[in-house]
Amino acid sequence: MIDPLTGVVVVAAVGAVAAFTGDRVLRRRKRAFRDRYGTYDRFRTQVDADEVRAVRDARGEVAAVKVVRDRHPLASLAHAHRYVKEL
Fold this sequence. Notes:
Oligomer: single chain
Radius of gyration: 19 Å
Strand content: under 5%
Shape: elongated
Structural class: mainly alpha
């Protein structure tokens, strides 16, 4: 059995590694988005608005956001959601 202090240290270490890794992944994803699209406005021009609008009208906003993310995997959830809301 692990004593409480050792348990706290292990949990803290695992949490720190997870946070560091998550931050690196997020930064890498943002950089890839900037490299591919440059800005949000350039991203907007590359999305098929008619397809997304049709999905939104038929199946709802969540499905439309999923279509945007499926077609443009570098787009964040926030970008995809903003795009659907602005249609």
